[in-house]
Structure formats: C-alpha cells, structure tokens
Design a protein that fits this description.
Protein name: Zn-dependent hydrolase
Oligomer: single chain
Pfam family, one: Lactamase_B
Shape: globular
InterPro entries: B_lactamase-like_C, Metallo-B-lactamas, RibonucZ/Hydroxyglut_hydro, Sec-metab_biosynth-thioest, WH-like_DNA-bd_sf
Number of strands: 15
Strand content: 15-25%
CATH architecture: 4-Layer Sandwich
Keywords: Hydrolase
Order of helices and strands: EEEEHEHHEHHHHEEEEEHEEHHHEE
Largest sheet: 7 strands, mixed
Number of domains: 1
GO molecular function: hydrolase activity
Strand order of the largest sheet: 1-2-3-4-5-6-7
Number of helices: 11
C-alpha cells in the first residue's frame, strides 16, 4: 500500500467486488470494479437504485472484457430493472467509453436512458471522437515537439495515435442532460449536489450526498495516486495544475468524515488529509522543477526524469509530457519562471 495512504481509513479494508458482481456499500449504492488494459488496471463504477431503474455512474472503456462484465451484471443482479440514466463524471475514455453502448442495450423498451454530463466534457468527448484532442495525431506530436520531445520514433508513435480516443470511445450520445456546479440531482432516495472540478478534464463533475456523507469523487480525489493533470495542444498556455489545486481545495468545505468513492483505488475517509497530501505532493514536484530550471533552462521533455523516476511506455509518456508542461506553466504563470524558445523552436523555462 502506498505510504501516502496510511493516514486514510478504508472502511472495507482491501475488499473489492469481483468482476461481474455488485458490492453493496449502503442501501441503494453498489460498487462495480472493471479491468482496464493499462498500467492503471481497474476502474470503479457505481450503480444506484433509482425509482424502478438503475442509474450507472461512469461506463468503463469500450473493451470486450468490460462489456462482457456488464452483460454478466445485467444477466444477474441488474436483470430486474433497466438503465434509467447514464451519468458520466467526465470525458476520459475509462469513464464515457461504453455510455452509448449501455444506453442502446439496457434502456427500457421505447424509453432510452439519458446521458447526464457537464456541457464542457460532453462537447470535448464528442470532438475527441472526431479529432485528435491531446490524445495523439499531428497536433499532439507538434505540441510535444515544441516542448522538447524530439525522438523521431516517439513522435512517429504519437502521430500514429490519431484515432486513439475513438478506439476506446466509439460513440458519445448526441443528446444529454447537462450537469452544472451546485445543481442538485435526486437519484432514488438520495439527493446529490454536483461539484465541478477543473484541471483534470474540462468540467469534471463529482457528486456529494450531504445526508449520508458520501462523495462520488471521480478522478478528482484518489487515495494513493495523484490525478493526471495535463496541458494539451488545445490549450497550450493553460494552467491546468492551478485549476486542479483550486478545485480540490474547494472540497475541503465538505465534512472531514465524508466517505469518498473514487474512480481508482479503494473507498476511503480522510478527504481533508488527502487534500493536504495532494498540495504537498505538487509543492514538492514544483520545487524540484523550479530548482532544475534555475540550474539550467529546460524543456518539459527534460523534466520527465525529474518528475517520473521510472521507465515510461508511450501511453505513459504522453500523460507525463502533459503533466510536465502543467508544472512548468504553473510556475511560468506565477512569474517564478520565464520561458523562451530555443534555436530549435522548443520552449525552455528558466529563472
């Protein structure tokens, strides 16, 4: 277990639901865990009782293994009810990938379940299915090259990933119901307040049930890993890290004993401690980046061994580049570092 997790409490210890099964945490609140074909090898999804139907929170990547697990669930514990609504926290493939497939397959006859999502993430997901918004392709390669990634083999692989998002998210429902910060959504016997978060995705929505002390935190609060916060080619001067840190700080207003239901890892209590840990983690990384750039003006690619002390595959490198740029831009926007292009056209950040 990650050392950062030790101050947190895990009410179910290491117990997790088997693939294709439900684990009931509270009346009307069920935990589903699905496998993913990445280094981060699972995602937590949530099924909520909802007036004669099911509300599903997040859908998983569109892989055969996850679809098989959904079919097992709907042939078993979910068989008594249709899908009433498909609620998606944000636009990343492991969250929205099967949304259209679930709606088409498990809605009540003649009454298609509605997708619920924030406007910014719905539009971003629709666009990513048709374009190459930060996940690969020529623009992503040019963006990374402008930040010092100049290995021809790596750039060629990034260019070849032009349809990467669409392979994991074949379709996004055209129609949706918009979720916004502060909005209340009633699901079954519970009322959930939407909490918008930024930096990880355009407009991530977490859900807080005050009456029962529950937070479906999505990717904004994870117990043992730091959420990826990236600057992509669509907003190359963005301050994603600043937005993320401000967003998690706002969650400090929630009660300290709130039970967080994260998309990865285990349900936990201790959200204030976790917020402190995230601030401390990024402060440490920012200090390391600043020190390296004060020693020698550096590109984001040169920050990879500073920020990530392990071997990265291409999938991880694209996320790592986005995160390195996010840390550099954070310092640049606050006047700690300045940046200028070198003779090769790459951005170098220095004191």
């Amino acid at each position: 277990m990650n050392a950062l997790a030790s101050p947190l409490t895990y009410p179910w210890d290491r117990l997790t639901p088997d693939v294709g099964t439900l684990m009931t945490l509270r009346p009307g609140l069920h935990w589903v865990r699905m496998p993913m074909p990445f280094a981060l090898n699972h995602i937590n999804l949530w099924v909520l009782d909802d007036a004669g139907a099911w509300t599903v929170v997040d859908a998983g990547v569109a892989t055969e293994a996850i679809r098989d697990a959904w079919q097992t669930l709907w042939a078993g514990p979910l068989a008594s009810r249709p899908l009433g609504r498909m609620l998606v926290t944000h636009m990343h493939p492991d969250h929205v990938g099967n949304a259209q497939w679930l709606i088409e397959r498990y809605s009540a006859p003649g009454e298609a379940a509605r997708l619920w999502m924030s406007q910014a993430d719905h539009l971003a997901a629709r666009l990513a299915c048709q374009s190459t918004t930060g996940f690969g392709g020529e623009r992503a390669a040019a963006h990374f090259q402008a930040h010092g990634l100049n290995t021809p083999e790596d750039l060629a692989k990034v260019r070849a990933r032009g349809d990467y998002y669409a392979t994991l998210v074949p379709a996004v429902p055209h129609a949706y119901r918009r979720m916004m910060d502060g909005q209340t959504v009633r699901i079954g016997e519970r009322e959930w307040r939407c909490i918008a978060g930024f930096g990880h995705s355009p407009e991530h929505i977490a859900l807080h049930c005050e009456a029962d002390g529950l937070l479906i935190s999505g990717d904004m609060l994870l117990p043992t890993i730091s959420t990826n916060v990236s600057v992509t080619d669509m907003e190359p001067e963005g301050d994603a890290l600043g937005l993320f840190l401000d967003s998690v700080e706002r969650m400090r207003a929630l009660p300290a004993d709130t039970l967080a239901l994260p998309s990865h890892g285990l349900p936990f209590t201790g959200i204030h401690t976790r917020i402190d840990q995230l601030h401390a983690h990024h402060a440490e990384r920012l200090a390391e980046v600043e020190a390296a750039c004060r020693a020698r003006p550096s590109t984001a690619a040169e920050m990879l061994p500073v920020l990530f002390r392990r071997q990265l595959d291409l999938h991880q490198t694209t996320f790592a580049m986005g995160e390195a740029i996010a840390h550099l831009n954070y310092l640049w926007h606050r006047g700690v570092l300045r940046r200028e292009q070198d003779k090769h056209g790459a951005w170098r950040y220095g004191a």
